[in-house]
Specification:
The protein contains twelve helices and eight strands. By secondary structure, it is an alpha/beta fold. The chain has a single domain, classed as TIM Barrel (Alpha-Beta Barrel), CATH 3.20.20.70.
Length: about 300
């Protein structure tokens, strides 16, 4: 099988994993978790989102978290930034990479960002240009790429137009999101092949949700098409607060296990990763949904 020898995992748990949790996690516990993640070999951590606190109360302490973490020089610390005001706060804490985001679905974009797709582009362009002037790299997210809970299938030409505009802004990488976990391996394979007619596969990352149990199969399909970067959330935490039923991010611990079994290098220490998962599990006071953590919980009960 023609799969990459090495895969880069971008840990989004502290942002995407926590954003939908109803119980507010104390800032110090978030900081301790990110510090633990920084020592696992993970080279990229999305620490929070600099959106207005009223939209995502769980992440209202983004500034304090950014200021409080211990920086590992081998880790890129990123954050989601919706607009110029959020960018000011992100730059003030010395974020390494700025992530801009939008949806491929008009309806989902309006519910998530409160703007049309056309009105979103100028806002993101301003953020991207300013971030790059400040010496930061910029990453893009497009959600509902494989299907929308409001609009169903998404036109490929519509997605391609969004990709073109985001790359024109100077983003280095575009993460394609299966926001409600509807993608299947053949769909993933076809989409990457179609996008590869215009862009290198290395320009994309994949962001899968495991809502219907297909995330790992979709990872393999993407790898076979040359994708070697995946977003994942430790323990399978998270989902989209604006897409009902979109629970279950691709679990970092399950992904690392599969890749290591396939002799694909990730640079991640699996034991340290599990210890970091136990740390946030204690903070949440509930079992994490990943297969690895469910297995560990079962073994602990059996003992």
């Amino acid at each position: 099988m023609n799969i990459p020898e090495e895969v880069k995992i971008k840990e989004v748990g502290p942002r995407d994993g926590l954003q939908n949790e109803p119980e507010i996690i104390p800032t110090e516990e978030k900081i301790n978790w990110i510090n633990a993640l920084s020592n696992t070999g993970i080279s990229y951590i999305e620490i929070s989102s600099f959106v207005h606190p009223k939209w995502i109360p769980q992440l209202s302490d983004a500034f304090e978290v950014g200021r409080g973490i211990i920086r590992n020089p081998n880790v890129t610390y990123a954050a989601l930034v919706p607009n110029s005001k959020g960018l000011e706060r992100a730059l003030a804490v010395g974020i390494d990479e700025v992530s801009v985001f939008m949806s491929a679905s008009e309806t989902h974009n309006k519910k998530n960002i409160n703007k049309s797709i056309a009105d979103t582009f100028p806002v993101l362009k301003e953020v991207a240009e300013t971030a790059k002037q400040e010496g930061k790299t910029v990453r893009g997210y497009v959600s509902t790429v494989f299907g929308c809970p409001y609009e169903g299938d998404i036109s490929f030409n519509k997605l391609l137009n969004i990709c073109d505009k985001l790359f024109e802004m100077g983003i280095e990488e575009l993460s394609l999101g299966d926001t409600v976990g509807v993608a299947d391996p053949l769909q993933v394979s076809r989409l990457i092949k179609d996008l590869s007619d215009r862009y290198s596969a290395q320009k994309f990352a994949l962001h899968f949700h495991d809502t219907r149990g297909t995330a790992m199969a979709n990872v393999l399909a993407a790898m076979l098409e040359g994708i070697n970067t995946f977003d994942a959330s430790l323990g399978g935490l998270g989902g989209c607060p604006y897409a009902k039923g979109a629970s279950g991010n691709l679990a970092t611990d399950d992904l690392v296990y599969m890749l290591h079994q396939m002799n694909v290098n990730t640079g991640v220490n699996h034991h340290k990763l599990i210890e970091a998962a136990k740390l946030i599990q204690r903070s949440l006071a509930k079992s994490l949904p990943s297969r690895q953590m469910q297995l560990i919980s079962h073994e602990e009960v059996s003992q």
